[in-house]
Design brief:
This protein is of the alpha/beta class. The chain has one domain (2-256): TIM Barrel, CATH 3.20.20. Helix content is 46%, strand content 12%. The chain is built from nine helices and seven strands; from the N terminus they run αβαβαβααβαβαβαβα. The chain has helices spanning 2-9, 31-44, 68-87, 98-101, 108-129, 149-159, 180-187, 209-220, 238-256; strands spanning 14-17, 47-51, 92-95, 132-135, 164-169, 191-196, 227-229. Strands 1-2-3-4-5-6-7 form a seven-stranded parallel beta sheet, covered by helices on one side. The chain starts with a helix and ends with a helix. The relative contact order is 0.11.
Length: 257
């Protein structure tokens, strides 16, 4: 609770939760405990905005395995997480999990077919809970499936559901061919969330005109969603890091939002 109060005092209003930080098998999380956690968050003034790292645990989830009996556990885990996210008041699930969504022994076309099939089976739960699934583009260094915003949006166009979308993550744009602001202009109808970080996954070292341009474009295009801080390092002074991040975001908010 004390750390959450500190986070709130720095001006942050929400938290994006990785289910593996709550339990080894997130599908076994007690709904009563989730409701208690939500009350704790609300008491501090922090909102659970969604879940991320969905297929990290339990070990062995493979979302695109050609055997339906093997991939079933991954997609059922996702459906359970949608229900749990709703209990916590979350708005979305971010499907990254590059290793767990990579495929072997089948073609890209077959992988796409499996993905669309499983997404269709998952839609009823998303619609029932009101939780959206945001498919995250990840670079080829992380996965061999859905590496760019264009590839993700092509999937979204095939199903065309209001509970499906994508997000923009600076760290994951290494395979993109367009400048950041052009990506926003082209794909803003499907972008529901933003992950803020440096290209190397750490905190940007200083105010960068490329970031400024990106946030200005988000404002001009009417973006109203969350901006989450997602960092890929351990820090000896996490509060100091959050203060630095908040200062950067205030600069970008001043020119962008």
């Amino acid at each position: 609770m004390e750390s959450l109060e500190t986070v709130r005092s720095l001006g942050f209003e929400g938290v994006e939760i990785s289910p593996f930080t709550i339990g080894d098998d997130p599908t076994q999380m007690d709904p009563a405990e989730l409701r208690s956690l939500r009350l704790h968050l609300e008491h501090v003034g922090i909102q659970c905005i969604g879940f991320h790292w969905l297929w990290s645990t339990p070990v062995g989830l493979i979302g695109l395995h050609p055997d339906p009996s093997i991939r079933r556990k991954a997609w059922e885990t996702l459906r359970v997480l949608a229900r749990q996210c709703a209990i916590l008041g979350g708005q979305f699930l971010v499907l990254g999990s590059g290793k767990q969504r990579s495929f072997e022994g089948i073609s890209t076309l077959q992988a796409k077919g499996i993905f669309l099939e499983e997404l269709s089976k998952t839609l009823p739960v998303l619609e029932e809970t009101g939780v959206s699934l945001l498919i995250e583009p990840l670079p080829r260094s992380s996965t061999n499936f859905l590496n760019t915003l264009e590839e993700v949006v092509n999937i979204l166009k095939e199903i065309n559901s209001p509970v499906l979308g994508t997000l923009f993550d600076f760290h994951n744009t290494t395979d993109e061919l367009l400048p950041w602001e052009r990506l926003i202009e082209k794909f803003i109808p499907w972008i529901r969330h933003v992950h803020f970080n440096g290209m190397d996954g750490s905190v940007p070292s200083q105010v960068d005109p490329n970031y400024t341009s990106l946030f200005r474009t988000l404002r001009e295009r009417g973006y109203k969603g969350w901006v989450s801080v997602e960092l890929f390092r351990e820090f000896t002074d996490p509060i100091g890091v959050l203060k630095r991040v908040r200062n950067l975001l205030e600069v970008y908010e001043g020119v962008g939002f």
